[in-house]
Write a structure and sequence with these properties.
The chain has five helices and eleven strands. By secondary structure, the chain is an alpha+beta fold. Bound molecules: zinc ion (ZN).
Length: about 230
C-alpha cells in the first residue's frame, strides 16, 4: 500500500512539474499547430460523415464555393406544416448579405452557383465592376403562398428566397422597386438576371408576374415550374 501510494504521489508530482514547465515556457518554444491541409479538388473532403450522403455532398459542395454558413439542427415540423430539412444559415455567399438567410443546403448552393455564373458576370459586363452585396427580404419563413391562403409557400420549407436588390462594388444600389422598369443599365441588369434565373430555379417571379412581386424577385427550387420573369 505504501509503495503504491508513493508511486501515485511521484506520478502526480511529475504531472505538476510538467504542467508548470509548460506554463512557464516562453511562447516561442510552445508547439505551433501545423497549417490545415489544402482542400482536395472538387471539395470532396467529407466533413459531415454523420449526415446522409446527399446532404454531406451538398455541404461539401457549398463549402467548396467559399460560402460561409452554419448548420441548422434538424427542425421538427411545426404544427403549421413548416419544415426546414438540411438547413443552413448562410452568412455570406461570395458576396456580403444584407443579413444572414436560412435555406436548405440545395437552395443555398443553387443561389451561390447563380451568383457565380450569372449575377457577377452580368454585373461585370454591364457596369465594368463586381457586386458587393446581395439584398434579400427572407428565405425560410413560415407563411402561406401569396394569393393562396392554404398552401404553404416554398419559404415555409426553406426552398425560396426573395431578392429586392444588389449593391455594386462602388456602392451603387440597384433595386427592383426603383429600377426594374427603368431605362439604363440598372433596369437591363435586373430584367436580364431575372430571365436567366429561370434556368437555375423552378419558379421565378417578379414585377412582370403579379402585383405581389412588384418590389422583389422570388426564386425557388420547388416541384412547380413557372418563369414569371
Ligand atoms: Zn418569395
Amino acid at each position: 500500500m505504501a509503495a503504491g501510494f508513493r508511486m501515485t504521489s511521484l506520478r502526480m508530482a511529475s504531472v505538476i512539474v510538467l504542467l508548470l514547465a509548460a506554463a512557464c515556457a516562453p511562447r516561442s518554444q510552445q508547439p505551433v499547430a501545423p497549417p490545415a491541409p489544402p482542400l482536395p479538388h472538387g471539395g470532396a473532403l467529407l466533413l459531415w460523415p454523420n449526415r446522409d450522403a446527399i446532404q454531406s455532398a451538398c455541404l461539401n459542395d457549398l463549402q467548396a464555393t467559399g460560402a460561409q454558413f452554419e448548420l441548422i439542427a434538424q427542425a421538427e415540423p411545426g404544427k403549421d406544416g413548416c419544415t426546414l430539412q438540411n438547413g443552413v444559415k448562410l452568412m455570406r455567399t461570395g458576396l456580403t448579405l444584407n443579413r444572414p438567410v436560412e435555406l436548405t443546403c440545395p437552395m443555398a448552393l443553387r443561389l451561390v452557383q447563380f451568383e457565380q455564373e450569372v449575377l457577377l458576370p452580368e454585373a461585370q459586363k454591364l457596369f465594368g465592376q463586381s457586386l458587393a452585396q446581395l439584398n434579400h427580404a427572407g428565405g425560410f419563413t413560415c407563411k402561406a403562398m401569396t394569393g393562396n391562403g392554404k398552401r404553404i409557400s416554398e419559404h415555409g420549407h426553406g426552398r425560396a428566397i426573395d431578392i429586392w436588390g444588389f449593391t455594386l462594388a462602388n456602392g451603387g444600389r440597384i433595386s427592383v422597386t426603383d429600377h426594374f422598369r427603368a431605362r439604363g443599365r440598372e433596369g437591363t441588369y435586373l430584367r436580364d438576371v431575372n430571365r436567366a434565373a429561370c434556368r437555375y430555379f423552378s419558379v421565378v417571379l417578379g414585377p412582370n408576374a403579379d402585383a405581389a412581386h412588384a418590389k422583389h424577385f422570388h426564386w425557388d427550387i420547388s416541384q412547380w415550374k413557372r418563369c414569371g420573369a
